[in-house]
Amino acid sequence: MTRQTIQTDKAPAAVGTYSQAVKVGNTVYISGQLGFDPDTMELRDGFEAQAKQVFENIKAICEAAGGSINDVVKFNVSLTDLNDFAALNEVFVANLSEPYPARAAVQVAALPKGGVVEIESILYIE
Predict the structure, then answer these.
(1) Which alpha helices (H) appear in the chain, and where do they start and end?
(2) What is the pLDDT of residue 15?
(3) 49-99 pLDDT per residue, tens
(4) 37 closest CA partner among 12, 8, 14, 67
(5) How far apart are CA 71 and CA 23, in angstroms?
(6) By three-state DSSP, how is residue 36 classified?
(7) Does 9 score more than 90 pLDDT?
(8) Is the pTM of this model over 0.90?
(9) 76 burial class (0-12, 13-18, 19+ CB within 10 angstroms)?
(10) What are the distances in angstroms from CA 119 to CA 1, 2, 3, 26, 49?
(11) With contact defined as beta carbons under 8 Å apart, do 117 and 78 qualify?
């Protein structure tokens, strides 16, 4: 299978030795997205604003890969505070429809650049 790097200016540029996403066959692996505005590379303020921006970033990468947020089969979520879990669910409901993808959510000690939520995604495009 061929391996293709996915990149879009509609999501924050990679700030390290990684790609926004990598497509192998029909599967796309999207690197963890933080709540950065892709135009300013500044974090949004607060959990809800960062979570909403994360979804916008993921949507842009999904589209650049030839799919959509509806093609995501798995989300891995890292939160700096599990007390934000209920607010996280609200953002998921606002952006997804049933049947929902698989998901894991864990609390971590810290995230890069002071972020409060990071979400990585796997999508399958038929």
Answers:
(1) 47-64, 85-95
(2) 80
(3) 999 999 999 999 999 999 999 999 999 999 999 999 999 999 999 999 999
(4) 12
(5) 13
(6) strand
(7) yes
(8) yes
(9) middle
(10) 26, 25, 22, 20, 14
(11) yes
Q: What is the DSSP string of 6-33?
A: E--TTSPPP-SSS-SEEEETTEEEEEEE
Distance of CA 18 to the CA centre of its chain: 14
Residue 46 has pLDDT above 80, yes or no: yes
> How far is residue 28's CA from residue 67's CA, in Å, rounded to a whole number?
9
Coil, strand, or helix at residue 35?
Answer: coil
What is the rounded CA–CA span in Å between residue 24 and residue 15?
A: 22
Distance of CA 59 to the CA centre of its chain: 8
| pLDDT of 48 above 90 | yes
How high is the pLDDT of residue 85?
A: 98
